[in-house]
Give the backbone structure.
Amino acid sequence: MNNFLKILKDKSHILADGATGTNLFGMGLETGDPPEPWNLEHKDRIRSLHQGFVDAGSDLFLTNSFGGTSFRLKLHNLENQVFELNKAAGVVAREVADNADRLVIVAGAMGPTGEMIEPHGLMTPRKRQLLLELKQRAWLKAE
């Protein structure tokens, strides 16, 4: 049985996190700065963010990877760290979920690609798929 069904066996709903960006601004993230590097540079703050969601009763929370694509990270010269930053997002999130006193689900935050898909932009559907698959592969390597 998957984890969603396990939770729904005992409850009629799944409570999820919210306001990740707003909370990170309260923890010191500056406007315009990407939150994904914090998965490496400020693990303690990301861990605290996730722990706060769990402590508040969330059954599910998202990784800190909303803008973790090469197109978004390129704006900050971090496009070569896509895998590393997304993997770190998964690692920190799994640590919190695995140490919870109940079943908690970690969901990968896909977010936008940062580019428009053709015909409105230059990104092909295949390129979009590859960008998002890279994020998924990184999360799966989170141990």
